[in-house]
Specification:
This protein is α/β, with parallel strands linked by helices and 306 residues long. The chain has 2 domains: 2-87 and 274-291, Rossmann fold (3-Layer(aba) Sandwich); 89-266, NAD(P)-binding Rossmann-like Domain (Rossmann fold). 31% of the residues lie in helices and 17% in strands. The protein is built from 10 helices and 12 strands. The protein has helices spanning 12-22, 48-53, 68-71, 89-105, 108-116, 140-150, 178-183, 204-208, 227-235, 276-291; strands spanning 2-7, 27-30, 40-44, 59-62, 80-82, 133-136, 156-160, 170-173, 187-190, 214-218, 239-244, 264-266. The strands form 2 sheets. Strands 8-7-6-9-10-11-12 form a 7-stranded parallel β-sheet. It has a 5-stranded parallel β-sheet with strand order 2-1-3-4-5, with helices on one face. The longest helix has 17 residues, at 89-105. The protein binds NADPH dihydro-nicotinamide-adenine-dinucleotide phosphate and oxalic acid. Residues 64-66, 274 line the site of oxalic acid.
């Protein structure tokens, strides 16, 4: 069995070492143009040339959860695309989103400013009931986040493509229930995959429907958000701010207004990182399962786009 490794912006050596230890029977090499045909690929944002040349692939393992970069490319017809399915990302996403929700609800950003100015100040306690948290996307990450937020006794709502039932979460689904979901939400969390249906979903119309004082937490993809619409609604006072981990251009350009906007907190696409050891174990386990002819989780549906 031959495995080709083709990951942009990734230090190859530790991945190759880990994959070789987990799959000692396989020949595992970094890809270069003209390399021998492989059976499986481990990829992150590969060039089209890789997928055009590697016509024999049966499985293409993406070392992240989101496959939007792969969706723009043509894959060999016989290959399944497989994404990381949790792999330690769900707990990271839960802690990151809970932190952002609590920081906003408890006004810790305001306290930070006061303390930096040497000011000993108190703010009036706020009611959790006034801060319903709505999570778009109730998949592997969104469901874990919804459960984690509900443990802090916030009202939690969720929205997905297909109907769901999750303890402690008021679930909405489909386009028909989108506006109802938004109208009941004050803190909006985006954990959708980026697809033609979800690109620009956080636009002027949708964000205007949030409860007054709405707050946006985007931890999915920058292109889910129409950045100018967010700024306009913060500046008009309808929204109170945002915590943004992902951006339409990454790294965030130095002159971008998000860097300095007092109501916006930015982080550098770090809410849930790929954990190398866990991901290698997951990918190796799935390759072994495919070799035995068994089904695996995390296979991407090209028609759905995720
Ligand atoms: P999943 O595929 O498990 O979940 C996707 C969820 O979105 C599902 O509930 C799905 O509905 C829902 N959904 C998809 N399309 C629509 C639609 N048109 N309308 C309503 N709901 C929709 O993905 P994950 O939870 O694993 O990951 C989500 C995203 O998080 C990734 O695609 C990636 O972009 C992002 N991410 C960001 C990271 C970061 O560091 N910032 C790290 C990891 C991931 P249904 O359940 O009905 O299919
Ligand atoms: C992912 C990411 O999709 O890190 O896994 O953004």
């Amino acid at each position: 069995m031959r495995i080709s490794f083709c990951c942009t912006d990734t230090k190859a050596e530790p991945w190759l070492e880990g994959l070789r230890a987990a799959l000692p029977q396989a020949v595992i090499e970094p890809w270069s143009p003209g390399a021998p045909l492989a059976d499986y690929a481990v990829v992150w944002m590969p060039p089209q040339q890789f997928l055009t040349e590697q016509t024999r692939l049966k499985g293409i393992f993406n070392i992240g959860a989101g496959v939007d970069a792969l969706m723009k490319l043509d894959w060999p017809s016989g290959a399944q695309v497989v994404r990381i399915d949790d792999g330690g990302m769900a707990v990271q996403m839960a802690e990151f989103v809970c932190h952002a929700v609590i920081r906003h609800f408890r006004e810790l950003d305001g306290y930070e400013v006061d303390i930096n100015n040497g000011k000993w100040s108190f703010r009036r306690p706020r009611l959790r009931a006034d801060f319903p948290v709505g999570i778009m996307g109730l998949g592997v990450l969104g469901e874990r986040v919804a459960q984690a937020v509900s443990h802090f006794d916030f009202p939690v709502l969720g929205w997905s493509r297909s109907p769901k039932s999750i303890d402690g979460v008021q679930c909405f689904s489909g386009q028909a229930q989108f506006n109802e979901f938004l109208a009941a939400t004050r803190i909006l969390v985006c954990l959708l995959p980026l697809t033609p249906d979800t690109r620009g979903i956080m636009n002027l119309d949708a964000l205007s429907r949030l409860k007054p004082g709405g707050y946006v937490i985007n931890v999915a993809r920058g292109a889910h958000l129409v950045e100018g619409d967010l700024l306009a609604l913060i500046d008009s006072g309808h929204l109170s701010g945002a915590a943004l981990d992902v951006f339409s251009t990454e790294p965030l350009p130095p002159a971008h207004p998000f860097w300095t906007h007092p109501a916006i907190t930015v982080t550098p696409h770090t809410s849930a990182r790929t954990l190398r050891e866990e991901s290698i174990a997951q990918i190796a386990g799935k390759i072994q399962a495919l070799q035995r002819g068994e089904p695996i989780a995390g296979v991407v549906d090209r028609n759905r786009g995720y």
